[in-house]
UniProtKB/TrEMBL annotation:
One of its GO terms (molecular function) is oxidoreductase activity. This is Phytoene dehydrogenase-related protein. InterPro entries: Amino_oxidase (IPR002937), FAD/NAD-bd_sf (IPR036188). Belongs to the carotenoid/retinoid oxidoreductase family. It comes from the Bacteria. Residues 24-515 form the Amine oxidase domain. The lineage of its organism: Bacteria, Pseudomonadati, Pseudomonadota, Gammaproteobacteria, Oceanospirillales.
Length: 568
């Protein structure tokens, strides 16, 4: 144990479990532990809950940062059960879309990625009859995925009874052929076989940007889910989801402290092992705990909070081999929000990826893939604009390291690059929607450094790991190590660096950690549905909307978001 992890004050006599981070994983862990009679407290370094799953406001517009699709929006699906337990979707309508995404190339040629496999098949065949075999296979697989109720299981494998294991095996076994064929085909290889150049370049962009080393499974699974109403967009959007889970947590008796940055986990000797007995904050204050759960960035937890004392071969491989290789976590993202007083893009799909021409790709600062996503965010849910108008979200993958270097070594350059983005976006939008520039109230650019500063995620990675090898190792962290670290008692890890990226996986990781903890404390695990029935209302965002009449709004997080607001 290093001195930094030693306590300086008495730590005994508390039953409270401390959860570090009020992202979806931390909130979910808190809810499930409260449901099981534990007293918990969440420590969050920011002023709002949600972590990645957030939104903020400028000039009355709400800039919803996260959700493009939410797995588990169909009430008949098993992931919905988790959202229902967490009260995440109670009282909310869900929007679903006919097209998952539309891709337009630099010459204006369009491919519509419909979520209905029959319609998609017809459309793709009309573009490229010569690709009939591959198109028909893709759409056939999609239909088969639509029949599956895929979700991370609701209990981790080591805690499943034999009946649950048999049921899971019975569900998976008949699909092994499907998983083998689609999991064994990389999207790149699939595109290689396509004959039509338009299909070749548009297929990898189905999920908004090219995710690189993905097999066909995530594409098929997500589009199939969207077609079955199981990957929709909830009223209230990203922050709405986080705030609803927060309400559930507080109703269950949980406590959240904001503006609290945890700096170290405090340890004490326990026989040959150590055990976690609390945390030390950035300001030196110590808070005792009976157990500690970290749901924050994996690297920060292991290398900073615990000073690299509890590495295992699996963690060594992940953090000393796979991470430094590069390309195995999600790239950074530039996100641009535009708030304007005009309704634009009526009749267009909600989401389009534009493949840029060479000149545009050159002009758009640090654009990794020569394409940009445009989403009509204000059409995805009500309440994002103060009046008749639009919120447009544009996004593209970029290079974290460059933005990070400029921000720390050359701030004027960092700022200039952001201003260049604003200039580009203005002219790009003007071409699409003539006259829009006169109606723009605000343009805001968030870089991957913004994301890193706001959530602490390594490299500004939006969903943590992005590699099959890493995913296999995460399986071990959950099913072999049981979300704990050898030699360290009373300490657990959850969140997207442990369970894989996405909101449903983050939420399920909170459920798992509560299940393991119950097991270790010899308690049976229990869960129940939220019976909250109130309708969603924008006051629940907790944002200081200029149009809001609420008295109970919290501070806007303007001081923590490193963004640029165009001078209009
Ligand atoms: C732009 C974007 C788009 C996305 N789109 C989708 C989508 O469409 N669908 C989907 O399913 N998923 C999507 N995701 C992924 C999803 O949002 C994440 O996988 C998920 O929210 C991760 O939750 P988490 O709780 O594990 O981690 P985080 O959200 O990172 O939460 C960690 C929390 O810990 C806090 N924290 C960090 N350090 C400390 C500290 N030292 N002390 C105290 N608190 C600390 C942070 O402030 C944060 O609140 C998207 C993510 C992003 C960023």
């Amino acid at each position: 144990m290093t001195t930094a992890n030693k306590t300086t004050s008495a730590t005994k006599g508390t039953n409270e479990i401390l959860i570090i981070g009020a992202g979806v994983a931390g909130l979910a862990a808190g809810c499930y532990l409260q449901m099981n009679g534990f007293q918990t407290r969440i420590l969050e370094r920011h002023t709002l809950p949600g972590g990645c799953c957030t939104a903020w406001t400028r000039k009355g517009y709400v800039f919803d940062y996260c959700i493009e699709w939410l797995n588990g929006t169909d009430p008949d699906s098993s992931p919905y059960k988790v959202w229902h337990e967490l009260g995440a979707l109670n009282g909310k309508s869900i929007k679903t879309f006919e097209q998952f995404n539309r891709v337009i190339d630099a010459d204006g040629q369009t491919v519509n990625f419909y979520t209905d496999p029959d319609r998609l098949e017809q459309h793709l065949l009309s573009i490229s009859p010569e690709d009939e075999r591959l198109i028909k296979n893709f759409c056939r697989y999609m239909r088969r995925f639509q029949k599956l109720d895929l979700c991370p299981p609701l209990a981790p494998i080591p805690l499943m009874g034999w009946k649950q294991k048999l049921t899971m095996a019975a569900e998976i076994l008949p699909q092994l052929g499907l998983f083998w064929r689609t999991g064994g085909t990389q999207m790149d290889d699939f595109c290689e076989q396509l004959k039509h150049p338009l299909l070749k370049k548009t297929f990898p962009l189905i999920l908004m940007q090219d995710h690189g080393n993905f097999s066909l499974i995530p594409y098929l699974y997500t589009m199939a889910a969207a077609g079955s109403g199981n990957a929709g967009f909830p009223e209230g959007g990203s922050l709405g989801l986080s705030q609803s889970i927060t309400r559930r947590y507080l109703d269950l008796g949980g406590k959240i402290d904001y503006k609290i940055k945890v700096d170290r986990v405090l340890l004490e000797k326990d026989g040959d092992d150590n055990r976690a007995v609390g945390v030390r904050l950035k300001n030196g204050r110590e808070i005792p705990a009976s157990q500690v759960i970290s749901t924050i960035d994996g690297h920060t937890t292991l290398f900073h909070l615990l000073e690299e004392q509890y590495m295992t071969p699996t963690l060594d491989k992940l953090y000393h081999e796979i991470l430094p290789q590069g390309g195995n976590t999600y790239p950074g993202l530039i996100t641009v929000f535009v708030g304007c007083r005009k309704k634009v893009g009526e009749g267009e799909p909600h989401s389009t990826t534009y493949i840029l021409n060479e000149q545009e790709a050159e002009q758009l600062p640090e654009c990794m893939q020569g394409s940009i996503l445009l989403q009509h965010r204000s059409r995805m849910a009500d309440g994002f604009t103060p009046q008749e108008g639009s919120v447009i979200r544009l996004a593209y993958f970029t290079y974290f390291d460059r933005w990070n270097r400029w921000r720390s070594e050359d701030k004027p350059h960092y700022r200039r690059r952001k201003e260049e983005i604003v200039t580009f976006i203005r002219s790009f939008l003007e071409k699409l929607y003539p006259g829009i520039n006169d109606t723009i109230d605000v343009i805001e650019v968030a870089t991957p450094v913004t994301m890193k500063r706001y959530t602490g995620n390594t490299g500004g990675a939006i969903l943590g790991w992005k590699s099959e090898e890493a995913d296999n190792l995460l399986d071990r962290l959950i099913n072999k190590d049981k979300m704990q670290l050898p030699g360290l008692k009373n300490f657990y890890m959850a969140g997207h660096w442990v369970a894989g990226g996405s909101l449903i996986k983050a939420a399920v990781s909170g459920r798992y950690v509560a299940q393991f903890l119950c097991k270790n404390m010899n308690r049976s695990f229990d869960s129940g549905f939220s019976n909250y029935q109130g309708a969603w209302h924008p006051d629940q965002w907790g944002l200081q909307l200029e149009r809001s009449t609420s008295e109970s709004v919290q501070d806007d997080e303007a001081d923590v978001l490193e963004t640029i607001t165009a001078n209009i």
